[in-house]
Automatic annotation (TrEMBL), chains A, B:
<dbReference type="GO" id="GO:0016811">
    <property type="term" value="F:hydrolase activity, acting on carbon-nitrogen (but not peptide) bonds, in linear amides"/>
</dbReference>
<dbReference type="GO" id="GO:0005737">
    <property type="term" value="C:cytoplasm"/>
</dbReference>
<feature type="active site" description="Nucleophile">
    <location>
        <position position="160"/>
    </location>
</feature>
<feature type="site" description="Cleavage; by autolysis">
    <location>
        <begin position="159"/>
        <end position="160"/>
    </location>
</feature>
<dbReference type="Pfam" id="PF01112">
    <property type="entry name" value="Asparaginase_2"/>
</dbReference>
<feature type="binding site">
    <location>
        <begin position="187"/>
        <end position="190"/>
    </location>
    <ligand>
        <name>substrate</name>
    </ligand>
</feature>
<dbReference type="InterPro" id="IPR000246">
    <property type="entry name" value="Peptidase_T2"/>
</dbReference>
<dbReference type="InterPro" id="IPR029055">
    <property type="entry name" value="Ntn_hydrolases_N"/>
</dbReference>
<protein>
    <submittedName>
        <fullName>N(4)-(Beta-N-acetylglucosaminyl)-L-asparaginase</fullName>
    </submittedName>
</protein>
<feature type="binding site">
    <location>
        <begin position="210"/>
        <end position="213"/>
    </location>
    <ligand>
        <name>substrate</name>
    </ligand>
</feature>
Length: 325, 325
């Protein structure tokens, strides 16, 4: 007689950038100990929002050109296709919580600016001055440089935290960002836009993007990748194909490569990642282990190496943002 | 010897709702007389924005639940993939003009709320009190009814004007709306969201949507239709397939049919339209003639009849919105 020991339905989660490591480690454990998928995703995103060290998300985020921290966040449930998002909100401590709350509404579930702040206030969400002294000093210095706004890349202090999770057959994703550094007030990138910055459908898969939002949205990258997975393309190839195809299109049209990176998961929990950068760190937790990976792409054929960076690689890697984020 | 008389490259344009008829008639003539595609699209959208009779777009638009008219608009160029959009802006006379202006920017090309208004003011765009006495009176009456916000359909005074145009091999589209009647302040539907409310790519086609934005965005309908056209599916079938598939999915998830309609054009200038309503009026101009059509769908198999309504049909049609819009 065989004794079948049922493994607890541990979840699998994938997230963007090294900054998400701590939160994803904790979130993976939460799933194992019985927390729901939304709880795990919210925990991992909030962990980045609350950490002032990370200057591209939440508290301590880099301000717009008027010196105000404006935040975007979105949440999507892959079982119900429920979507909630807030855009360009000020002084909301955890924008991802408001986005998640909004996702339960059938109407007025995507709110921008002061209307979104009004909603958050009426629903009792925490408010806070999100501009830290350190981000303000960096802003004052940046302001003197008189850079060309039209040429800013994503890596002058802009990385979105994106988290995709799966628990049982339930998939969902959450994203949060303070947007492009020194942006115009009210500027929105791809992050809070469904299909561009994120998409989740438990019957196919989920994807999310980080990088120059104005470029990512032109190709609705997250929806495109999810649909490619739905067609039966393996998740890693789906990421590579969609990103390379879009990059080539943008190059043909004369756009520079300001940096775009994507993560994705199919409905079986297989993961993928791709980037137009030389190296893109992302994190995977299977509930037992949580590890940082590097995706490094061949810009000719779009194929990627995915590897766990050893200490030598990290030492030799000269890119500041690898360490910062 | 054959004498070949070259026909001037007259454009073709398609737009949503009867309210777009006058503007599209004029825009078609503009294209013939040498105006550019953006000029023609802006003219047709502005014609609806400026007409206070149309309570779902621009001047005289129905207000949000606080009595404020908040407007969304977007413009996309199919040659360059340039995108500009404004969301939840107040008192801007022609939001489509600001969206078009923003589309020329490589960064900060999508702006929301007060940030977008600041941009419009600094760029010299006209401001105006967009709330008419008639819309305000309607608001005061509606406010007493205490309707369930979560069940509002698109046809309690919400239709987006969407215009897709092609001139030579150049495609583009523009959309404008005052959004869902009695919406929460700051609420955004599908209209200003790339891929959901609109998409244009001259190398494939273009599509745009009108109806309950919260439902349309869950399927990124405009991008989905454009990609279906790119795969080689005929434009009418692309509209029907994508809309039916999405409606079925929403029904399975327990969503009601709040109303969704789409228009599309392929890169050869062939047009299509589909709806989940009993009848959906749209307009086509080939520069010589401009006609109102009705799309009427079979809710079982998704196939549509497209016909020119005669006076008898219009008399027998009891739906108010057919006449209003």
């Amino acid at each position: 007689m065989n004794i079948v020991i049922e493994r607890p339905p541990r979840g699998i989660m994938i997230s963007t950038w090294r900054m998400s490591y701590q939160g994803l480690t904790e979130a993976g454990k939460l799933l194992v100990s019985g927390s729901t998928l939304p709880e795990a995703i919210l925990h991992s995103v909030k962990s980045v929002e609350d950490n002032e060290k990370y200057v591209s998300v939440g508290y301590g985020g880099l301000p717009n050109r008027e010196g105000e921290v404006e935040l975007d966040a979105a949440y999507m449930d892959g079982n119900t296709l429920e979507v909630g998002a807030v855009m360009a909100v000020k002084q909301i401590k955890n924008p991802i919580e408001v986005a998640y709350d909004l996702s339960h509404k059938k109407r007025s579930s995507v709110l921008v600016g002061t209307g979104a702040e009004m909603y958050a206030r009426q629903r009792g969400f925490a408010f806070k001055n999100m501009l830290t002294e350190s981000s303000f000093q960096r802003y004052l210095k940046e302001r003197t440089l008189d850079k060309d706004e039209e040429k800013r890349t994503a890596y002058e202090g802009h990385d979105t935290v994106c988290v995709i999770g799966r628990s049982g057959e339930h998939m969902a994703c959450g994203v949060s960002t303070s947007g492009l550094y020194m942006k115009h007030p009210g500027r929105i990138g791809d992050s809070p836009l469904i299909g561009s910055g994120f998409y989740a459908d438990s019957s196919a898969g989920a994807a999310a993007a980080t990088g120059v939002g104005e470029d990512i949205m032109k190709g609705c990258l997250s929806f495109a990748i999810t649909e490619k997975i739905r067609e039966g393309v393996a998740v890693q190839e789906a990421c590579e194909q969609c990103l390379l195809q879009h990059l080539r299109r943008l190059e043909t049209l004369g756009y520079g490569n300001g940096g775009m990176s994507v993560i994705a998961m199919d409905k079986e929990g297989n993961t993928g990642a791709a980037t137009t950068l030389s190296a893109f760190p992302f994190v995977i937790s299977d509930g037992k282990e949580c590890k940082i990976y590097i995706a490094s792409g061949n810009q000719e054929n779009g194929e990627h190496k995915i590897f766990i960076p050893d200490s030598q690689w990290l030492e030799e890697c000269s890119a500041d943002w690898i360490f910062m984020n």
